[in-house]
Design the sequence.
């Protein structure tokens, strides 16, 4: 059955675009980005010009689905040696080709996953003024954004997001505290759901790290230990129905700079991956989650596994929700591959903070980001001296 679009809040104006709260949602405006940014997309009878994407980015997907395995991660626990070997081979083939696979047999509770998706629906259906109580402060990770200019693109995506950070290095439940302190005590139950969901995502990400170790044939425990004290990002995405879906995108083409993304889709679908010049759709698999390699793990694998372009499309009739958990290293951890995979080195040592500083300064999130980042980290002597002089004078 086709889901009806949500009923829009009655107090909202019907004008297309209202004054901006933050053109990027992160305090960084992309070159040429339109500054206008806050509107209720559910009320738009047609697409405002800032949301119209170039044909090169918004061209239709291939009819062929992405060829990606659904890997049973339960084999890491049940002692099935043959199943484990097969799973490692499937992951190795997918990650060397396009960096995407799906996982089943995980321990994430189905009821918790449903509650997290339902929580996203509840939040995004709030009146805009109430959602904006959680508006993202420039320069921070956490907060709500609506029709914001992605810092890596000059066009606006047809979506709303709510992002918040997660770590478990202390006793405080950081996600639950964020919801209560930002949105008020009425949102404490929602905060507890996302706190538990992030904890489950952290454990699943470490399980996947074990599988990646096996698939690469590197030292056991290297990646799991590397991410044991991770600082991750959780993002709830909402894509409203769109009157002209062929002219816009929910999320523009990009590569994730993070290490690993775990995506829970609802039944609608909209994720597409660029392979050999064609956009290939990824249909949701009940009970499974989509995994993709990001730039940071590409460096941790010494370039053996790929971080590929992907995007999200929208449709005319159905709203879509997804939950993305981005696994990131602790900010000061040095990113380097395990010794058995480190020869010859493809990328220099760096920290997650270094990479974030580069991507935000240079608006990079594409297939050449790591190469450009390497040149930025290790400029020729003359260029380094010139850069130092400029920075000293500024």
Sequence:
């Amino acid at each position: 059955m086709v889901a009806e679009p949500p009923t829009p809040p009655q107090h909202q104006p019907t004008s297309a675009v209202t004054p901006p709260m933050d053109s990027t949602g992160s305090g960084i405006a992309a070159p040429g980005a339109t500054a206008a940014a806050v509107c209720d997309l559910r009320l738009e009878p047609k697409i405002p010009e800032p949301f119209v994407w170039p044909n090169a980015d918004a061209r239709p997907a291939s009819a062929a689905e992405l060829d990606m395995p659904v890997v049973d991660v339960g084999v890491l626990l049940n002692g099935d040696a043959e199943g484990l070997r097969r799973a490692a081979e499937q992951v190795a083939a997918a990650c060397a080709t396009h960096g995407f696979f799906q996982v089943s047999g995980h321990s994430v509770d189905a009821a918790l996953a449903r509650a997290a998706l339902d929580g996203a629906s509840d939040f995004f259906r709030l009146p805009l003024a109430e959602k904006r109580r959680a508006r993202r402060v420039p320069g921070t990770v956490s907060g709500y954004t609506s029709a914001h200019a992605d810092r890596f693109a000059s066009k606006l995506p047809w979506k709303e997001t709510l992002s918040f950070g997660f770590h478990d290095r202390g006793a405080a439940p950081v996600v639950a505290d964020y919801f209560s302190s930002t949105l008020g005590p009425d949102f404490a139950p929602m905060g507890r759901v996302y706190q538990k969901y992030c904890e489950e995502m952290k454990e699943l990400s470490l399980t996947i790290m074990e599988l990646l170790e096996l698939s690469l044939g590197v030292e056991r425990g290297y990646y799991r230990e590397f991410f044991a004290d991770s600082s991750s990002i959780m993002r709830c995405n909402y894509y409203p129905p769109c009157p002209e879906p062929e002219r816009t995108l929910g999320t523009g083409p990009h590569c994730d700079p993070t290490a690993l993304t775990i995506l829970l889709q609802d039944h609608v679908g909209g994720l597409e991956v660029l392979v050999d010049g064609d956009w290939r759709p990824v249909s949701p698999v009940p009970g499974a989650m989509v995994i993709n390699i990001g730039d940071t793990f590409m460096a941790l694998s010494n370039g053996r596994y790929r971080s590929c372009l992907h995007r999200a499309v929208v449709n005319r009739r159905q709203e879509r929700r997804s939950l993305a958990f981005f696994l990131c290293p602790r900010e000061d951890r040095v990113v380097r591959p395990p010794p058995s995979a480190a020869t010859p080195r493809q990328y220099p040592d760096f920290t997650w903070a270094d990479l974030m500083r580069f991507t935000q300064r240079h608006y990079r999130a594409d297939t050449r980001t790591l190469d450009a980042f390497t040149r930025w980290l290790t400029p020729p002597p003359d260029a380094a001296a010139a850069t130092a002089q400029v920075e000293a004078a500024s």
Summary: The domain at 41-393 is CATH 2.60.120.330 (Jelly Rolls). The chain has one domain: 41-393. The radius of gyration is 21 Å.
